[in-house]
Task: structure prediction
Amino acid sequence: MADEQETEAEAEEFHPRGTVAILVMFVLAIIILWGSVYVILLSRGVTV
Result:
């Protein structure tokens, strides 16, 4: 019974560091890609 309580406590304290890292990399990739598109549009002289 004590083992079950310990595993529940450990499950509540789980922090998904790998998921956060992948999410951060994904967001950075999107920002970099949009930035490159913006620079390309500026270099071609496209105005809005």
Observations:
- DSSP finds two helices and no strands in the chain.
- The chain has one domain: 15-48.
- The mean pLDDT is 83.
- Helices lie at 2-12, 17-44.
